[in-house]
Known about the structure:
Layout: E1 10-14, H1 18-30, E2 34-38, H2 41-50, E3 55-59, H3 67-77, E4 82-88, H4 92-100, E5 105-109, H5 113-160, E6 164-169, E7 174-177, H6 179-184, H7 204-214, E8 227-230, E9 236-245, E10 251-260, H8 262-302, H9 305-337, E11 345-347, H10 349-366, E12 370-374, E13 383-385, H11 387-403, E14 410-418, E15 421-428, H12 462-472, E16 476-482, E17 486-494
Parallel strand pairs: 1-2, 1-3, 3-4, 4-5, 12-14
Antiparallel strand pairs: 6-7, 6-10, 8-9, 9-10, 11-13, 14-15, 15-17, 16-17
Helix pairs in contact: 1-5, 2-3, 8-9, 9-12, 10-11, 11-12
Bound molecules: adenosine-5'-diphosphate (ADP).
Residues 396, 400-401, 404, 428, 430-431, 433, 441, 446-448, 453, 458-463, 487 line the site of adenosine-5'-diphosphate (ADP).
Amino acid sequence: MVKTTEDPLRVLVVDDEQDIRDGSERILSRMGFEVLKASRGEEGLETIATTEISIVFLDLKMPGIDGLEVLARIREMNRKIMVIVITGFATVETAIEAMKRGAYDFIPKPFEPDQMRIVANRAREKLLLTREAELLEQERIKTLAHLDTEKSRISTIIKSLPNGVAVTNANGEVVLTNPAFRRQLGLPSDKTAGGHISAYIDDKDLCQLITDISRGKFIDYEEIPDYEVNLADGKFLRARSQPVVGDRHECLGAVVIFENITALKAMDRLKSEFVAKVSHELRSPLSTIHEQLALVLKDAVEGKDADDQHLLSRAKEKTQSLIALIGDLLDLSRIEAGSVSLEPKPLQIETSIKGIVEFLMTRANTKDQKLLLVGPKEPLQPIVADPMAIESIFGNLISNAITYTPEGGEIRVSIESAGPNIRVEVKDTGFGIDAKYLNKIFEKFYRVKDENTRYITGTGLGLPIVKGLVDSMGGIISVESIPGEGSCFTVLLPV
Length: 495
Ligand code: ADP
């Protein structure tokens, strides 16, 4: 254990002359040393082996083992002990030899008290300085070790963060990134720090913002805006940045956190679409109902009964479409929540579809359309399905075909067996759908808006409901269409 500077240093005087030992003890103890004495080399070595000694005054000429030998043994035992040799004038050479072998200093014999004091003081100073240096070194190692653990702990935490982190210096150069950041931005996992932020992020405005923050442009942090990045792969990230401030309040750079908000954005979009759609769809029929009812009431007063019937039936139609919209919304939310309670039972699909076709025939007739049902060549195996689901799927498809086919067109519904499946095609000679919309029409609320569909009302929920039901039955739905010629929706249902 290293002694602190407050502890008295222990000195051992090894000399065969009693006077020298006692004289030295007097001088040294007055100087504040704790003094031990030995009259022979062996005795001195024993003391050194058992007691902690800092300085040894060692007579070179002693009976028994001589001083040089004792010095060699001390050096072997403990390299830190400072040995000062005491030697007669005649043996200056020996003193020099002793210095070569590791003694710290020497005093000639006989010596004045002052001479001893000077040498002892010098040794003490040297010792204390060495100890201080040792303490400082230990402190430094301890601090470094502490810093190292702290550093690795922080770096492990940053590496494991689910959000992307990038840190820049005052020039906007990246000094640190974590794996989540590299993943989110599609950067190679071994992309190292070092380049300007613009080498990591394509969005110029965001790079400018981060560079400005890094340079210390923002004094009020509240002013720093959150930034939304739209990545090429359709993902959305929200970047939140803060300056990194040093001890003297200088700006050292910026730290940016990236959060994946793709799901939030999608929800947000759907929510707005939903609200817009619902309010739009509810507003106009409701106002019509309102106006018409107002008229009916007015006419009732004036007694014009014939027109009332017409107005009332229009009001009924509008309420009907509102009820349908609400019904669609409810169906869809149930299908999406997985809580649609299908009650499957064995049924002949051609019989179910025949019923639907017959039901919709009146609508087709009012548009002068041919609605044909082409049955299978051979009787089909029954399928196990919920009759309500079958009705909803094909009711929607055939009703769409009637709606999106001009007057005089043709709708052909064909049913046939296809290996382990039953294939039902609903083919029309209608407006058709442009290829770029084909995968969109199964999205909620999506409606193609063009010259042909402009005056057709609908919710955009029919096909999502159809797809949701077909999926839940383990089937597949696909569509082919040529604008101006017609569309063909194909449903494959497992037997
Ligand atoms: P809605 O019919 O209420 O608008 P759907 O989800 O049933 O909603 O259909 C979405 C869109 O797909 C329709 O607005 C229409 O543009 C298009 N579409 C559906 N069926 C046909 C079809 N048979 N022919 C042409 N377009 C169609």
